[in-house]
Amino acid sequence: MKTLIILISGRGSNMRALLEARLPVDRIIVISNNPAAEGLQTAATKGAQTICINHHAFSDRTTFDSALADEIDRYQPDLIALAGFMRILTDDFVFRYHRRLMNIHPSLLPAFPGLHTHKRVLDDGVKIHGCTVHFVTPKLDHGPIVIQAAVPVFPNDTEKTLADRVLKQEHRIYPQAVRWFLQGRIRLTENTVFIADTCVHDSVIY
Ligand code: GAR
Predict the structure, then answer these.
(1) Does ipTM top 0.95?
(2) In a designed cystine with 107, which of 90, 94, 117, 121 is the match (CB 3.0 to 4.6 A)?
(3) Confidence of residue 205 (pLDDT cuts 50, 70, 90)
(4) 91-107 confidence digits (pLDDT tens)
(5) CATH code for residues 1-97
(6) Catalytic sites, residue numbers
(7) Do the domains spanning 1-97 and 104-198 agree at the CATH topology level?
(8) What's the CA-to-centroid distance between 200 and ligand 1, angstroms?
(9) How many CB atoms lie within 10 A of CB 147?
(10) Which residues have any ligand 1 atom within 6 Å of their CB?
(11) pTM, entire model
(12) Where are the domains of the chain?
């Protein structure tokens, strides 16, 4: 049985894109650290199993991550997809799911890791922006890159118009990356991802 777990903290639009993508999995379980996450409702209406583990109920990061891992392990997932999961994960957690923990980030990594990427792009006068799906390593918003999408930055862009343009691409590339993984087409060396039966440019969308 193939199982995908999606971790969310808020709106859940990337989760929705994954749920709507008809991925080759038998079950999808959505877990949130935030009981008020809008995405939990969306997931339930889409028929996914939902679980909330409120991080405020734990004294520190380690005990929360350990409770989260215990819950995840009950389902023996093939892949865990972070989709707007706004918690820094402990190294132990990341190593436990080595090679099966993916993230989507709203910038062309390794540029602009961290928060407020669209504002920082505008402030720096960057002309090309985008999003990245990558495997998670202990260093925040780093790790082997699976796929990226690039978008132009226009002179009259606001944070909102730019975020919307990037988000549209996020919704395209995350399901693509997860599909490749579930199809067994991804080979991962220490720092590099190879995707079977694709040409190099399939992993970059313009
Ligand atoms: C997305 O833009 C995602 O790339 C970003 O949070 C947003 C969540 O939106 N993730 C990060 O910044 C992780 N570093 P969503 O809840 O609608 O998918």
Answers:
(1) yes
(2) 117
(3) confident
(4) 999 999 999 999 999 99
(5) 3.40.50.170
(6) 105
(7) yes
(8) 26
(9) 23
(10) 8, 10-14, 39, 83-84, 104-106, 141, 167, 170
(11) 0.96
(12) 1-97, 104-198
- Give the nearest ligand 1 atom to 167 CA: 2
What spatial distance separates the first Cα and last Cα of the chain, rounded to whole Å? 35
- Asked whether the beta carbons of 21 and 179 are under 8 A apart, the reply is yes
CATH architecture of 104-198: 3-Layer(aba) Sandwich (3.40)
Q: How far apart are CA 163 and CA 172, in angstroms?
A: 14
Residue 96: CB atoms within 10 A of its CB come to: 17
Mean pLDDT over residues 43-57, rounded? Answer: 98
Distance 109 CA to ligand 1 centre (A): 14
**pLDDT of res. 201:** 64
Ligand 1 midpoint to CA 16 (Å): 12
Ligand 1 pocket mutation, candidates 160, 169, 170, criterion most atoms within 8 A of CB: 170
pLDDT tens, residue by residue, 184-202: 999 988 888 999 877 656 7
